[in-house]
Structures are given as C-alpha cells and as structure tokens.
Amino acid sequence: MSETALRELLGRMLAWEDAHVGFESAVDGIPPELRGTQPAGAPHSPWQILEHLRRAQTDILDFCVNAEYQELEWPADYWPPSPEPPEPGSWDESVAAFKSDRRALQKLAADPATDLSARIAHGSGQTILRELMLIADHNAYHIGQLVLVRQLLGIWPTK
Hints:
Layout: H1 3-13, H2 23-27, H3 46-65, H4 90-110, H5 128-153
Helix pairs in contact: 1-4, 3-4, 3-5
C-alpha cells in the first residue's frame, strides 16, 4: 500500500460506516428528553457516551499535536459526572466539537508532513499511526454502545 493510500484509508477510518453505524447516524434523532436517560441495565446515558467520545477524541488529538500535552485523569476527565447534559445546547456543542476534532485528525492523517511512524516526543513510544487507529477503534466501540442504548430506549430506527 502506498503512503498516499494509507493516509486516505486512515482519514476514512475515522468516519466510515463500512462495517458498522457511523457517528452521525448514531447521534441523529435522539430526542432531547431522552439524551440524559440511562436505560435499566445500561451503564451510561446517550449524553455520557457522546461526551465520552468527544473527550477521548479531543485528548488523542491534543496528545498528537501538542508538545505541552498534559495527561488527563482517568476516569474523571473522560466521563461526564451526570447522565444529563448540563445545558440545553450541550448536546449540539458536543456533536459539533466531535466533528471538528475528527476533521482535524483527518487533516493530520492526510498531511504528507506528518510522519505517521515517528514516535511522539512526549509519549512512551506511541506514533501518530497508532493514535489514529486507536481513536477509530475506540469510537467504533462506543458508537456501537450508543446504538445499543438507543435500542434499549426504543429510539433506534428499525428499517
């Protein structure tokens, strides 16, 4: 595989729906009154999953591009404390921030000046390639979790 093809594949991986539902499909159409509802037997509400996706992706982006990166505290900095969005606009802000950070990661992957295999200087052996694959995998996992929560809430389309 050529380097160009690899970069294109990495960018697509961050947003594809080849083997599963994508981010947009998973977050669209969740009624505001159910965004903070934690179904029986589920560990998280739609809001908590969305915000976790956003926080983790922001952290990975920061780790990749910020030489002054500060490690976050697990789990406090990665999961919101409440199952409900704190403000009426919080859901839309989180969705927009997720998409913005995803675009930045796609741009990073596509940039020929980005050495995908070089170790990140402030890390412990991680590379940009590893981090891009990590966040694509992480997002796919939690997007699937969000679909399951929607099914439990009875708000998943059954085409």
